[in-house]
Amino acid sequence: MQGDLLKALVQFVPNRELVAVASYCERGKPLTPELIPCYINLSDPYQGLLSKDDTPKEIIAFHNKYGAAIDCLWSITVPVGMKIYLQFAKFTLDKPNDCDNNFVQVFSNKTNLASQEKMFCGSIADTVTSKTEKMFVRFFSYSFNDKMNFEANYTAYRDTATKELQEIENIENGAEDIDI
User: Fold this and answer.
1) Which parts of the chain are beta strand (E)?
2) How far apart are CA 106 and CA 118, in angstroms?
3) How many other C-beta atoms can be found within 10 angstroms of the C-beta atom of residue 72?
4) 154 pairs with which residues across the strands?
5) Domains plus CATH for the chain?
6) Which of 40, 46, 94, 154 is the most exposed place for a label (fewest CB within 10 A)?
7) Are strands 116-120 and 70-77 parallel, antiparallel or unpaired?
8) How far apart are CA 180 and CA 176, in angstroms?
9) Count of Cβ atoms closer than 10 Å to residue 43 Cβ
10) Residue 15: which region, alpha, beta or left (left: phi > 0; alpha: psi -120 to 50)?
11) CA separation, residue 63 to residues 35, 43, 75, 158 (Å)
């Protein structure tokens, strides 16, 4: 919205409430443009590393120029029938416990709130296992500096406990032995 001397910027903070900010801005000066998408597809199907250092240079340059948030999404896919074990080797946010302005979210299969496995915004990030062969890791922060860092390793694994449980259930229900 724009008046003679006032421009209002309405910003949607991901997975949060609507935030409206009104401030004076000279005519003709542009407001912050739309965020550049940051999507990183990890290609090794059995193990890999993701970190703050994966953030593309153009995303960092955009952040430095406009002060916009960094919002990156890593996609991990392993072979069907396997799950993902994600372990954080390093985890330091610029402002621990400021969960509106810097956090890491981990999702299984989809990036909706129902699929969210964990959200980390403090000073520790736990190990996470996926429910399927697909996992997403999202990093969101208004700060991007040397004080913050995260690095995580992922490994594909076959969940033999689930397979054995399914075989027991099949036998109990009178189903034929089916190799799952």
Assistant:
1) 6-12, 18-24, 38-42, 47-51, 70-77, 82-92, 102-108, 116-120, 128-129, 134-141, 149-158
2) 5
3) 19
4) 48, 86
5) 35-159 (2.60.120.290)
6) 46
7) unpaired
8) 12
9) 9
10) left
11) 9, 26, 22, 39
Parallel/antiparallel/unpaired status of strands 70-77 and 134-141: antiparallel
CA nearest 54: which of 157, 159, 138? 138
Q: pLDDT above 90 covers what percent of the chain? A: 47
| Arithmetic mean of pLDDT over the chain | 81
The residue whose two tokens read 């890999």 is 48
Q: What is the pLDDT of residues 82-132, one digit of tens each?
A: 999 999 999 988 888 889 989 999 999 899 999 999 999 988 899 999 999
Integer Cα distance of 36 and 14 in angstroms: 14
- Structure tokens that stand for 33 in this block: 């443009």
**Cα–Cα distance for residue pair 90/98, rounded to 1 Å:** 18
- Tokens describing residue 26: 């000279």
Main-chain phi, psi angles of 19, to 5 degrees: -120, 125
HSE-CB at 45 with a 13 A cutoff on CA atoms is 7
Cα 43 from chain centre:
17
The residues that bridge with 105 in the sheet, in sequence order, are 119, 138
